[in-house]
Amino acid sequence: MTSAARAEEGSVEGISIGAVLRTLQPDFPDLTDSKIRYLETEGLISPERRSSGYRIFAESDIARLRFILTAQRDRFWPLKVIKEALDRLDRGLDVPGLDTTGPDPDGADETADAAGAVVTDLSAAALRRRRAIRLKPSELRERTGLDRAAYAQLKAFGLLRTDASGRHHADDLDVATAAACLARHGLEARHLRSFRIGADRELGLAQQILEPMRRRRARGAACPDPDDLEAELLSTMLALHVALVRSGLSRGH
Fold first, then answer.
1. What are the DSSP E strand ranges found in the chain?
2. By mean pLDDT, which of 41-55, 93-107, 117-131 is the weakest?
3. Residue 39's domain is classified under what CATH number?
4. What per-residue confidence (pLDDT) applies to 53?
């Protein structure tokens, strides 16, 4: 997890660089405080700084360090390759050549395969894992087989949307996968615009329920977790949508 991601969650308790050395040196005897500082300078780790200037390391920083050190010792990866691997893991993607038993910074392996397949787990925890996934446009096209023209059309009709960093979330991968499948049956992006319109209308209904609860929770009021309610609404609305479409198709027989 990057320092920017931690900032969204607020300040976290952590340990000093000396305590990090005591934690990791049994497995990595050659580790020194200067090497940890070097890895920070190279942008591979980003511990918090207190007002005094001291570095404070969270559990996610220690897991990240363990991943880096293991990749150097066991896989002989150079820092450039490790940095690219960490970037993919930060965005919830799999890393070629990385086995699933290796150290994993901040639980990224749970999200590695969370996109690009039929979504069956609609729990709040699963939805949070999916939010962590970030894909470059080129990665999305590579995974789905979309060419640049088809990708541009899906963006033009609002079916695909990038975030402020120009990345796609897991849901965009599912949209692109479905669109690629429907294209094989002759349905183009322009034909799918009604899905975007319908989804936005359903989103409006869900927000009418979710936003007041989020405001109450922000004020410290006792109320259910909005993430749990979001998961319940999503599951129920999807079930309703599927039932209506299935019913319509059944009447055609």
1. 48-49, 55-56
2. 93-107
3. 1.10.1660.10
4. 81
Residues 15 and 92 in one domain: yes
Residue 51: what pLDDT? 84
Token couple for 57: 């390391």
| Residue of 3, 6, 1, 40 whose CA lies nearest to 20 | 40
- DSSP for 15-53, written as a single string: B-HHHHHHHHTTT-TT--HHHHHHHHHTTS---EE-TTS
Query: Is the separation of the CB atoms in 176 and 144 below 8 Å?
Result: yes
13/40 Cα distance (integer angstroms): 19
Asked whether residue 162 falls in the same domain as residue 215, the answer is yes
Give the Cα separation of 155 and 159 in Å (integer): 6
Sign of the alpha-carbon dihedral angle for 109, 112, 117, 122: positive
CB atoms within 10 A of CB 3: 13
